[in-house]
Amino acid sequence: MQRLKALLPASRCSFRRFGSHSRGFSAQPDYIRHDDSQDQILVEGRAKSRAAVLNRPSSLNALTTSMVARLKRLYDSWEENSDIGFVLMKGSGRALCSGADVVRLYHLLNEGNTEEAKQFFKMLYSFVYLQGTYFKPHVAIMDGITMGCGAGISLPGMFRVVTDKTLFANPEAQMGFHPDAGASYYLSHLPGYLGEYLALTGDKLNGAEMIACGLATHYFLNERLTLGEERLGKLITDEPAVIEASLADYGDLVYPNKRSVLHKIEAIDSCFSHDTVEEIIDSLEREAAVSCDEWYTTTLKKIREASPLSLKVTLQSIREGRFQTLDQCLVREYRISLRGISKQVSSDFFEGVRARLVDKDFAPKWDPPSLKEVSDDMVELYFSPLNETESELELPTALREPYM
After folding, report:
1. How many alpha carbons fall within 13 Å on the CB side of residue 287?
2. Contact of 262 with 1, CB cutoff 8 Å
3. Nearest Cα to Cα of residue 133 among 65, 179, 182, 69
4. Domain residue ranges in the chain
5. pLDDT at 388
6. Listed residue (343, 309, 374) closest to 175, CA to CA
7. Class of domain 2-250
8. What pLDDT score was predicted for residue 2?
9. Phi-psi category of 60—alpha, beta or left, where left has phi over 0 and alpha has psi -120 to 50?
10. Half-sphere exposure at residue 343, Cβ-oriented, CA atoms within 13 angstroms
11. What is the C-alpha to C-alpha distance for residues 91 and 80, in angstroms, rounded to an integer?
12. Is pLDDT at 404 greater than 70 in this prediction?
């Protein structure tokens, strides 16, 4: 664990650096709720801050196009509002956000509504970029399930609070897709080859593990979360240092338990540093044959459950993310996502959703069915520029990043 900590930044890190902005404030706290059509994203108004509340608890707050569109409108307006010093995001029920509503996407695509599906990814990635370049401090409370693009909309901010209820994962490869919404950025920047491990296996981390590897900045016991939120809501500030101090007052010091995968960091680096998925699997198999450690066989099982094509696309995406900025990662992920829903190369996304979430037989028939049948040309098509009929993702980098 000491080796892992040595690889982490010395300070609490974020996707970007933040400036300080002096603003006025409205002293009257209120609870703002718009018309019934907006019930899936609620807004809590505080003295000097606003909170966006994801409110589809029966669906674990899975995101739809309209939800992301509303989030983006709200965040745009809050950024421009001089009465608001900082912004907070949280979820209702057992999750912050379980990811995209992929069952809805599955049905949209099967009905031929490709444009709405494309719009979802365009809106989602634009919002992730907004988060990663936000001009005001942001607090994401990742209490409960935080997976897939649920992590994508919360991890770019300055403060990332986890609890003893937090459950984080990127299980997209097991779904016939790829870790997206900025995942190729934040996973590739984890210590060693932990990002490759998480992306290829879909393994889960708890809150203490997220603190240890740098994905989160503060840890609260779930029972203390309400008090911490109340303290934040009373702050009259836009200063990150003041918000940091408030979070630290209610935060808890934790370390991963002895069974944590983070204690396997040397084995992860040894096996997952190879150039290809085949070499990673070979390395795991060699270790499994001579070791009594069940971790190797469990890891192999998780990888073999995934789409072979998705594994290769995912590994290349994470490797490219190591040398790219957040906006470059999002542009590339948008290309990959559109290829993934187009069936141009494979129908693995549809098959993965069908097997896990629609029919729930957990017996996907991947195409191609094995790694050896996945050609380099198949993989490269996912990364190639979009054609004339599909515009690339355009992000306002020239407008936002010069001010960071």
Report:
1. 22
2. yes
3. 182
4. 2-250, 267-386
5. 73
6. 309
7. alpha beta
8. 41
9. left
10. 9
11. 24
12. no
Coil, helix or strand at residue 44: strand
pTM of the model as a whole: 0.87
Cis peptide before 156 (omega within 30 of 0): no
DSSP letter assigned to residue 145 = E
Phi, psi of 137 (to 5 degrees): -60, 145
Run of H or E residues at 219? strand 218-220
Other beta carbons within 10 Å of 276: 13
Strand partners, 162: 142, 219
Q: From start to end of 80-189, where are the E strands? A: 86-91, 95-97, 138-142, 145-147, 159-163, 167-169
By the 8 A CB rule, do 311 and 137 touch? no
3-state secondary structure 350-367: HHHHHHHHHCCCCCCCCC
Higher-confidence residue of 54 and 14: namely 54
Q: Hey, is 50 helix, strand or coil?
A: strand
Question: Which tokens in the block code for residue 120?
Answer: 């979802």
Crossing angle (nearest 10°) for helices 376-383 and 326-342 = 120
Residue whose entry in the numeric block shows the structure tokens 């599909």: 390
Q: DSSP per residue over 233-274, as a string?
A: HT-----HHHHHHHHHHH-------TT-GGGGHHHHHHHHTS
Spatial distance between the Cα atoms of 324 and 28, rounded to a whole number of angstroms: 43
Residue 11 tokens read as 């300070």
How far, in Å, CA of 112 to CA of 106, rounded? Answer: 10
Mean pLDDT for the stretch of residues 114-140: 94
